[in-house]
Design a protein that fits this description.
The complex is a heterodimer of chains A (496) and B (166).
Chain A lengths: L43 H5 L2 E4 L4 E5 L1 H4 L1 H12 L4 E5 L8 E7 L2 E7 L5 E5 L14 E3 L2 E3 L6 E3 L4 E3 L10 H4 L10 E5 L2 E5 L7 H5 L3 H8 L6 E12 L3 H9 L4 H4 L1 H13 L17 E5 L5 E5 L13 H8 L1 H7 L2 E6 L3 E5 L3 E10 L2 E11 L4 H15 L6 H14 L7 E2 L15 H5 L6 E5 L10 H16 L15
Antiparallel strand pairs in A: 1-2, 2-20, 3-12, 4-5, 4-7, 5-6, 8-9, 9-10, 11-12, 13-19, 14-15, 14-21, 15-16, 16-17, 17-18, 18-19
Helix pairs in contact in A: 3-15, 10-11
Chain B lengths: L2 H20 L3 H5 L2 E10 L1 E3 L2 E2 L8 E5 L2 H12 L11 E14 L3 E14 L4 E16 L2 E11 L3 E3 L8
Parallel strand pairs in B: 1-8
Antiparallel strand pairs in B: 1-4, 2-3, 5-6, 6-7, 7-8
The chains are: A alpha+beta (496), B alpha+beta (166).
Chain lengths: 496, 166
């Protein structure tokens, strides 16, 4: 017990959380207020105490409540998902005038709509009259949206164009003084066709929020001479586990071999029968493959690595042209395995194929996932077929890799039943080598990450998980320390 | 063979396939398929439009040989797939069987398959609801499945989806 942090367990628990009760500190029991739209009964010091962050001692731990508390879920929704930038979709999901798609910002249904002049608008999907949903499908094309309740009508820019029997409504002056158009997402910006929105107007610019991680969007958009396109077919799934388990898993190099052993056996057996069938993620000998990670401010991170079987990548066929167009360094990076998190809700994942994965927390213990395969616009039939087969096999919840991850998220959630599961230890690999000096792979891209690590896959770095957790902690702490409203301290997340 | 006999044989094959899946008799199940079987579970593009070109669009599952199905069985048997550590109990209910095209050696069949799935580990249950199209071929005295297209209606997948849940 001697070396234990005071809040790590033993007799000195500062956490005394009981199911059905709000956070009780220092022995004080606070009756459950139930789920409210207001803040749970937590303050900034409660959040601080959930993360043990002592890099100087090689200690980093996250309390299991971070993954299971519904009170924390409420705070995350209010101050992270509904209180800052989240990914909405791609502009190519609504390419033509009057095209639209619907998605969510936290718990809020929103519409992204292209108007008659080609301008995209971010709108709240609720009629101004009585608040019914205005858009009912995942995507479509509509010059006007008519609310089915009282037939108020909006154009594709969100302006109100008709109020049923307006002139016979005997409204007072107050009604006509108001704007009746759909509410706008307060902040709505694009980086090279990647659309983000924020329900909080008081956030930095999107580029400032994304910072250096925009290069990982460039590495996707520039893969083809004409940009990228969505491969048709959206795959949705849901799991009974916390949203952070998913984003952490994609950064977790350590799990790959043990969790995905059956996939590796299958692809190795195929390669033994037919060398041409060797997949990009076939089993590799230690030493031939490198893996590294970088943490950036605001919770973004990137796991990456070279030495895989790049001949099995759809892009490999165009490698010479690619080098000519984007240069040798970027071409090499496009063929690297890259799992990049744009905190909090979007990942760009590329191994044998390329995926956009968007998470939407539904509760502390349930997460909805929407996934898209993306590809260089107009790639050859041969490359596209290879891409879709490898995508389905690896990424789909009906494939040979993702279901094993997702089942384990549910196992983690199921195992964290009570306070007996408090501090898990899986955040500390790599702490002895993670550097504040950028590794060579960062420097060659001109990046200056907060921390970075490189090594063999068996290093299994976990310092990559610190970035999102620190951003999570600092965002919630800042929100809860503010007397009046959250002042989100972007940019300081992992820099201290 | 009369049309009526053919129908009975086809229904028997569908029911046998369901039974083999439900009783986890994987080898007998696999033997119902031809080696070059096309096993296809499309994804959806919109509320009422599924993907139609498995070479340029995403499917939930697209396999073009029996060997690919066999890999999935090996994955289950290995005991090393977290998603399959405790297999679900299933009951595949086949209905609405309709023979669409029939030649001397082939028959196209449509049916609905509702698979009731109980997960003993989570003590939870759910179901997949699918409209299936099968292409059968005569091999000697038996019918074999040469193509199977499974259109899953409830495609917000619950954690995972695999052949035994369809």
């Amino acid at each position: 017990m001697a070396n234990r942090h005071p809040s790590e367990g033993g007799g000195a628990l500062t956490f005394n959380k009981r199911p059905g009760f709000a956070y009780a500190r220092k022995g004080q029991v606070v009756p459950d207020r139930g789920r409210t739209s207001g803040d749970p009964d937590m303050d900034a010091s409660d959040i601080e105490a959930l993360v043990i962050d002592r890099p100087e001692d090689g200690v980093f731990k996250v309390h299991a409540d971070v993954y299971r508390s519904e009170e924390i879920f409420e705070l995350e929704q209010k101050y992270i998902f509904e209180g800052g930038w989240v990914f909405l979709g791609l502009d190519c999901q609504a390419p033509e005038p009057h095209d639209f798609f619907t998605t969510y910002i936290g718990r809020q249904s929103v519409i992204v709509s292209r108007d008659k002049d080609g301008v995209l608008h971010g709108l709240i999907n609720a009629c101004r009259h009585r608040g019914a949903l205005v858009c009912h499908t995942a995507a479509g094309n509509a010059p006007t949206h008519v609310c089915p309740y009282h037939a108020w009508t909006y154009d594709s820019a969100g302006n109100n164009t008709a109020i049923t029997a307006h002139d016979r409504g005997a409204h007072g002056a107050g009604f006509d003084a108001e704007d009746h158009g759909l509410r706008r997402i307060p902040r709505f910006e694009s980086y090279r066709g990647f659309l983000f929105g924020s329900l909080d107007p008081d956030v930095p610019s999107l580029e400032a929020y994304l910072g250096e991680t925009t290069i990982f969007i460039d590495l996707v958009v520039d893969q083809g001479p004409d940009g990228l396109e969505l491969v048709p077919g959206t795959v949705h799934y849901t799991y009974r586990g916390n949203w952070k388990l998913q984003i952490e898993n994609s950064a977790d190099i350590y799990h790959f071999m043990p969790t995905h052993e059956t996939l590796l056996r299958i692809v190795n057996a195929r390669a033994a029968d037919d060398a041409a069938a060797a997949s990009a993620y076939r089993h590799r000998k230690e030493g031939s493959v490198t893996r590294g990670s970088m943490c950036f401010p605001n919770g973004h991170n990137a796991m990456f690595g070279g030495g895989d079987n790049i001949q099995a990548r759809p892009l490999y066929r165009e490698l010479d042209k690619l080098r000519e167009r984007v240069g040798a360094v970027r071409a090499k990076w496009m063929l690297y395995t890259r799992n990049v998190l744009f905190f909090p809700n979007m990942q760009l994942l590329e191994n044998a194929s390329l995926q956009i994965r968007v998470n939407r927390p539904v509760s502390a213990s349930r997460t909805d996932i929407v996934t898209h395969c993306i590809a260089p616009r107009g790639e050859s039939d041969e490359a596209r077929e290879l891409r879709v087969r490898q995508y389905e096999e690896f990424f789909n919840p009906s494939g040979l890799a993702t279901p094993d991850d997702t089942a384990i998220f549910e196992d983690i959630q199921a195992a964290a039943g009570a306070d007996a599961v408090d501090w898990n230890q899986g955040y500390m690999r790599g702490m002895g080598t993670a550097s504040r000096e950028p590794i060579a792979e960062a420097r060659e891209l001109g990046l200056n990450p907060v921390t970075s690590v490189t090594g063999s896959p068996s290093l299994g770095d976990e310092t990559i998980l610190h970035g999102p957790i620190r951003a999570w902690r600092d965002r919630l702490k800042a929100a809860l320390s503010s007397e009046d409203r959250p002042s989100l301290r972007y940019g300081s997340a992992a820099a201290e | 063979m009369t049309a009526g006999d053919g129908h009975a044989e086809v229904v028997a094959l569908l029911h046998r396939e369901a039974l083999f899946l439900d009783e986890q008799r994987w080898d007998e199940w696999l033997a119902l398929y031809t080696e070059d079987v096309e096993y296809w579970v499309p994804a959806w593009k919109g509320e009422h439009e599924a993907t139609a070109d498995p070479r340029r669009e995403i499917s939930l599952i697209y396999l073009n040989s029996r060997a690919r199905l066999e890999e999935r069985i090996g994955r289950i048997r290995s005991g090393r797939s977290a998603a399959n550590l405790v297999l679900a109990r299933t009951a595949h209910a086949i209905s609405n069987v309709l023979i669409e095209n029939e030649t001397a050696g082939t028959v196209d069949v449509r049916c609905v398959c509702i698979t009731h799935i109980y997960d003993p580990k989570r003590r939870s249950e759910f179901r997949t609801v699918a409209r299936n199209a099968l292409g059968l071929v005569r091999v000697g005295e038996e019918w074999r499945i040469r193509s199977k297209k499974v259109l899953v209606l409830n495609d917000n997948l619950r954690t995972k989806l695999d052949f035994y849940m369809l």
